[in-house]
Amino acid sequence: MTVRTSRPGPRKAGLFGLLFLANTAMFAVYFGVGGPLVQSAIEAADPVNKVSNAGMVAGISAIFATLFNPIGGALSDRTHSRFGRRNPWLLGGALGAFAALWFLGTASSVVVILVTWSIAQAMMNLFQAALTAIVPDRVPRELRGTASAVAGVATSVAAIVGTQIAAAYIGSVAGYLLLGAGVVASAVLLVLFSRDPRPGEYEIVVKERRSPLAALADFGSALKHRDFMWVFVGRALMNLSYFMVLMFQLYILQDYIALPSGVTAVGGVATLTMVNTGTSVVATLIGGPLADKLQRYRLFVFVSSAVTGLAMLILLLSPTWTGMMIFAAVNGVGFGAYYAVDTALVTLVLPNPENAARDLGVLNVANAGPQMIAPLAAAFFIGLGGYPTLFIASVVVAIVGALTVLPVRSVR
């Protein structure tokens, strides 16, 4: 099926503002719930086995994220209702996530935490699939870096919002409800104030009738495209490196770093997040537009990937609160610049823009998949040689991820 839209020209500033709000709300859930709230709930339920249980919950719930993002993308690509292509999935995913988060906030056992967080992850990824497709749907190629910078800044702001709300409402359902309500509100704003093409505004040409199962079987077809495959591998490795450390940041502060008097582990996570976010925002605001101006996306991705990985050496060489603060700043620069430009690079190597949501859903496997593997890998490395072994492994994975951008040929 081929869809040709008339692509009505939205007011880009307004659209970017809505994308900023939606990405902020979405990533606030991932950072706040998936980090301190879930980990604290797991610790309260079974403090002795908190590391293994946290790895198990993060890993299994990430399977749902991995599956539901490309499924949601394919379904939204095939949706041609009077409400638009993306709107039903934005609203449906947001409302489903809110309900799941509400139940998650009342969970008191590891099993219930696992089930409810997995459902919430599934619903959030239906929302995310529709949201990420808006950029290739409605943003011109020459503004993709700027659009990616908007999403990157939103991710950084979300890290502060999510962790601060989590720190303020540890042990309470209120944090879950506030973060879930933010996603619902952002979905409503997108539906009301941005234009999703309706039937009659795009022409549907049926080339071949395919069943939904056959369409789902096409997910892996994008990986046959050489440049898309390399970007996929690089994104997967970078996320694996990043989340192996990030997912255990609370426990690193509890068990490895000597915290100053008056600083709690949860409060330390919130402080580090603010430092990381400040440097990340600056790097994102500079990196995205500068990559657009120079049209040199691969170079920016390579350098920022290397910086992100090498920042882990700070934790190895200086396992102190000061070292953690320096790490947060340097890592923020690297990862902020990386995501700002790599997201633009992704949209420029899509094999077929008509299947944008589906292929971005496939690429999101490189986001969610490492989150499934990272806690298990981190627990293995911690068991093998403690946190220093984890940091060394993270550096190696990030450097290999940086090298994968070099074979990309269709984009400079």
From TrEMBL:
Main location: membrane
Keyword Ligase (UniProt): no
Keywords: Membrane, Transmembrane, Transmembrane helix
Pfam families: MFS_1
Keyword Protein biosynthesis recorded: no
Top-level taxon: Bacteria
PROSITE patterns tied to this protein: MFS
Coiled-coil stretches: none
Stretches that traverse the bilayer: 56-76, 88-105, 111-135, 147-167, 173-193, 228-253, 265-287, 299-318, 324-350, 362-384, 390-408
Subcellular location: Cell membrane
Membrane topology classification: Multi-pass membrane protein
Residues annotated as domain Major facilitator superfamily (MFS) profile: 9-412
Protein name from the UniProt record: MFS transporter
Source organism per UniProt: Microtetraspora malaysiensis
Source species taxonomy: Bacteria, Bacillati, Actinomycetota, Actinomycetes, Streptosporangiales
